[in-house]
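the two lines:
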Amino acid sequence: MDTRYFDYAATTPVDARVLEAMMPFFSERYGNANSLYGLGRDAFRALEDARERVAAGIGAADPSEIIFTSGGTESDNAALLGILTRVSPNGGAHLIVSGYEHHAVLHPAEWLAKHGYELTVLAPRTDGHIHPDDLRAAMRPTTKLVSIMHGNNEIGTVNDIKVLAEIAHEGGALFHTDAAQTLGKVEFDAVDLGIDAASFSSHKIYGPKGFGALYLKKRTPFETQARGGGQESKRRSGTQNTPGAAGFARALEIMIEEMPVEIPRLAGLRDQLIDGITSSLENTEPSASTGARLPNIAPLLIKGVEGEAMLLQLDNKGIAVSTGSACSSGSLEPSHVLLSIGCPPEIAHGSLRLSLGRFTTDEDVDYFLEVFPPIVERLRAMSPVYARMFGSSAS
Amino acid sequence: MIYSDKVMDHFNNPRNVGVIEDADGTGEVGNPVCGDMMKITIAVDDSERISDVKFQTLGCGAAIATSSIVTEMAKGLSLEEAAAISKQQVADELGGLPPAKMHCSVLATDGLKVAVDDYLVKHGREPLAGVIQSADPNFDPHADEDHHDDAEVVEHVHDHAGADGECSVCCQRP
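prediction for all of em together
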């Protein structure tokens, strides 16, 4: 059975055009970009060409502002730890992160809080956005860094980074954003947004896994988190991943080229899914539906059903999805993202995230809308509390 | 985290789903806040053996599969035997459960214990099972902050499941 893939926010397949761009750098042009002979110079040129293209793609002022990394998680860790430990080596500085960040931001922030830094975790409002006034109120004279994600991976809301960065700067703090979910799906111009640092991931945009970038505006204080051979202008040691860089640069170019067509197409499919589900099943709603949103994420709350049970039943039908239920993650608590926007845990256990992408077709959406309602009805019929909690049967 | 074939079979084709009308004993455990809840009804024959069992469960694959298999295991047993089914026996019968899912088997065994006790209490007798007594009021739920990541601790944590089967560690929300 072919997989009907509705989990593009988790990862994406490598696009054939991206793979083609990467292939020469495995076995033919395999030189170390730091070697002085011809093979090395060739790899170096390819790496710097990729850097220029990535810089252009995200609107950086200069290619030297791009540090290649192993992905979004490394970029987030490097941004938080690298900036704060340079700005304030002995601790004491105040850091603000939003409460629905990816764990790649939350966990380093919590680590910093245990090692002498002050941390404020800023809650989003119930509409799923970080409100500028809330950030303004959280700022302190000692605030040195603010990290707020561009687009949320579970509920798809997109924050007004330009305004938030301005507020951080007014208070004398630097601003980082995790843009792993928005790259190539929402306009991104680092100079125009006025940010100091941003994290990007390659495998979310049809590039290879294990590759990403950290944008670091010139003169942003930064303590390297990987010491060694001094690659990436001493900001990230380790032999550079030339095929990864070539693939990421190509992947980003394709995303940007196709944006004008893809964004409305995906937003249309997203709305079709949300409308189709909410109209055919009672007690269902999107977990976020107002303000700026990612075109490819349909975040749904299916009340009175546990998420993992839905996920497994959909898997039986060849459909791949994500859920924010506790049981899917091996933890016992539902998604911190949903809890942060005020979603009660008993509702959060029934969350379903459908994320669409380049290879999602109208037919995939139709198929989903056909097979999903009976799955929910069957699970609700098995529940001892559905009727009691939601006041009607699942017939 | 991968489920055994038998877990998937019981999840996809759960046995004994439903409610016994005029049941002799009813057990309801869990809490939707924790994401899982089970209701089990039993019929008891003249020789005090369980002649029929049915269940309803809100929960994940493991919660549904453990509920389903416990109904199969309980049929024909004496009340004492049914109340003595352990979470490990349930897991073994299913060909094993992922460590993070071991607590789901507690839901099923506790549900059955509560149903047996319900029968006994209705007949003016002492309850058998120690479900309620197993809750430790002095247990500090946050003594080990990383308990979610540790399979061994997850099991330990659920030895402290509350009277209603609710996990006292992870579900202390209003």
